[in-house]
Structure formats: C-alpha cells, structure tokens
Amino acid sequence: MLRVAVIGGGVGGSLIGSLLHDAGHDVTLFDIKDKYFKPCGDIVPNVYRPPFPWRVEYEIKDFAFYLDGERVYDVSYRSPKWLTINKSEWINSMRAKLRQMVGNEKPKLDNYDVVLDSRGPYPMDREVVYTTRVIMKVENFNPEAILEFNTRLTGFYWIFPAGEGLLNVGAGFLEDKNSRKLLLEYLRERFTKYEILDIRGAPISIGKVAKKEGRIGEARGLVFPLSGEGIRPSAISAEIAFGALNKGKPLEQELRKGLSTIESRISIQSLLLNWYRSSNISMRRTMLRHFLKSEILIDAFLEDKLDFQGIKESMELIKSGGIST
Ligand SMILES: Cc1cc2nc3c(=O)[nH]c(=O)nc-3n(C[C@H](O)[C@H](O)[C@H](O)COP(=O)(O)OP(=O)(O)OC[C@H]3O[C@@H](n4cnc5c(N)ncnc54)[C@H](O)[C@@H]3O)c2cc1C
Which residues form a coiled coil (predicted)? Predict the structure, then answer.
C-alpha cells in the first residue's frame, strides 16, 4: 500500500485519487476549495470513456464556424461527435470518496511515498490565455456548437449546447486578457433574449511548462493549445499514472511512453498557434479560410488529432459517410 498525496482535485487529481483509493492505497487530496469550482466548456470528444462514468448533458452532432462575423462552414455528423458532460458532478463524486485537506496552507508532504501535482494551470509556470464563460438560458435554443474566430485576435468565442435550452458561451484571446468584457459585448451583439445563470473565468495553459516531473493533467501541460481541450488528456494521464504506481513501475517513464501521441499532437498545435499569432490579419484570414474549407482537417481538429494518423482516420470517417453535409 502506498501513501499518496495528490495536490489539486480537478480532473486528473480526483480521478487518480479515486483509482488509487479503490485499489487499496492511502490517498490524501489537497485542494484550496472543498468542491470543484473551475469553469469549463464541459466538452469532450466522443472517443474516450473514463473509468468512472460521467453524466452526459447533451450530445452534439452539428457544428458551425464563423470567421470575422461570416458563417464560413457547417457540418452535421450522423452520430454524436462531442459530448457536453456534467464535469463538476463527476469530479465531486470522485472526490467524495477521498480524505480531503482543504485550504490555502502549504501542505506538509514529508510522510508520503508519492506526491503528485495536479493543480491544473495554477502552477502558472507557462503561458496562459484568460477565458470567461457563462451558462445561460435562451428562448431560441440552437443545438449547434459554434466556434467564432476574430482575426484581429488569437483565440475564439464559443457557443456550446449545455442542456436543453441552456448554452455555455465563452471567450478567450491571447492579446486581450479582459475576456469577461469581450464576452459580455459578444452576448449583447449575438443574442436578443438570454438570462445569465453563472459567469466565471479561469486561465487555460497554452505554453510549455517549466517542469513535468511528478505532475499530471494540465499541470504537466496536457492541453491542446488550439482548442483548449484538457479534460480527456488530464484523465488519460491520471489513468497512466495510476497504472504505473499500482504496478510499481517507474512513473515518469510510463507517463512519457503513454502520453507520446497526445504530446506530439499538442506540439503540432503549438507550432500552428505560433504561426497564426505571428501572422498579420490578412494572412490569418487566408489561413483560416483554407483550414475551414477542409472537412477532413475540421474533423481532425474536432478530435484534436491533427497528425498523420488522425487525418487518415478523419478521411476514413468521411469516406464511409460519417457526415451528412
Ligand atoms: C473557461 C474554460 C473552458 C474550458 N473548456 C474545456 C472544454 O470544453 N473541454 C476540455 O476538455 N477542456 C476545457 N478546458 C480545459 C480544462 O478545464 C482543463 O484542462 C482540465 O480541467 C484540467 O484538469 P486538471 O485536473 O489538470 O486541472 P483542473 O481541472 O484545473 O483542477 C485543478 C485543481 O487544483 C486546485 N488547485 C489550484 N491551486 C491549488 C493549490 N495551490 N493547492 C491545491 N489545489 C489547488 C483547483 O482548485 C482545482 O480543483 C477549459 C478551461 C477553461 C478555463
């Protein structure tokens, strides 16, 4: 039996804590809050099943992309491409099993065999984009997931179905940290009648982290910088770390091996992001127009698999009639 301290009870921390606890290890979870509070888009591509199931609030098949106010591409899939999950409920149900130490005091970690850092973006040793999202009620509910690019800035607005009649709408741009103001202006322009139920902001990691050892999830830099997807990579890193610790295998070696595809896909997105942000507006427009014309690249983007293998899978899906437009 291992004595394990997990710092941060988000996706990665609560999942590895739960897995270790169920396998008979002694786990203590340290977090600054007693319940998960971080805002999210709550979207996961429909290609991953976690060891403890989450509640699906909405299945998304329809997507639309806007470029500088113009609708440039839409697509409908025959089966759900993305899922809106109840992320907080999922995390809190895993945390409920664990011994939790809550507060801002620095934890005493001398008596543990293993200490895992799963503080998400909060080590703050990497570049981040400041994002804000609202959960809101609307009368004219549209089941499409929308991504809207404004080429003056690097980032996007999103509109995701969060449940029947509910939307999760957010904004995050590299050049403007005031995502709350940008989002509220966007809502006023885009919607006539809406009621905001919750508004919250948080950073998303987009840059290389200073340190990976002993870390899982976003703390380790496991976020796709073009999409902001971090739930699935964090969960996968927790599963790999659990496998290593439970079988007494070397943790870092197992994490490096098991995460190699995700990490190389993150690197490809980092290159594309750097290319985009260093381009002028007309170049950005040209790049996005080309990208948004390709149903194969869009499909690969929706599952964050912009590498040779991923693009091949997208070609196969489209060839076999996976989309209906
Ligand atoms: C607005 C927004 C929208 C997003 N949308 C999506 C999306 O739709 N799909 C997707 O896949 N990803 C999305 N992400 C990214 C995703 O939320 C994260 O990548 C993912 O939650 C990372 O999981 P994690 O366990 O590594 O860290 P987190 O979920 O960030 O959890 C970190 C935990 O550490 C705790 N903590 C912080 N500081 C300390 C400390 N000093 N000591 C102890 N504990 C601490 C926090 O309270 C928190 O519980 C979004 C992020 C944001 C901000």
Answer: none
pLDDT tens string 77-102: 999 999 999 999 999 999 999 999 99
Closest-CA residue, ligand 1 atom 18, reads 230
For residue 41, what are its two tokens? 């888009």
- Structure-block tokens of residue 259: 């995460």
CA 192–ligand 1 middle distance (angstroms): 31
How confident is the model over 245-258, as pLDDT tens digits? 999 999 999 999 99
Nearest CA to ligand 1 atom 43: 31
218 CA distance to ligand 1 centroid (A)?
A: 7
Question: What residues make up the domain containing 95?
Answer: 3-265
Of 117, 111, 107, nearest in space to 238 by CA? 117
Q: How many domains does the chain fold into?
A: 1
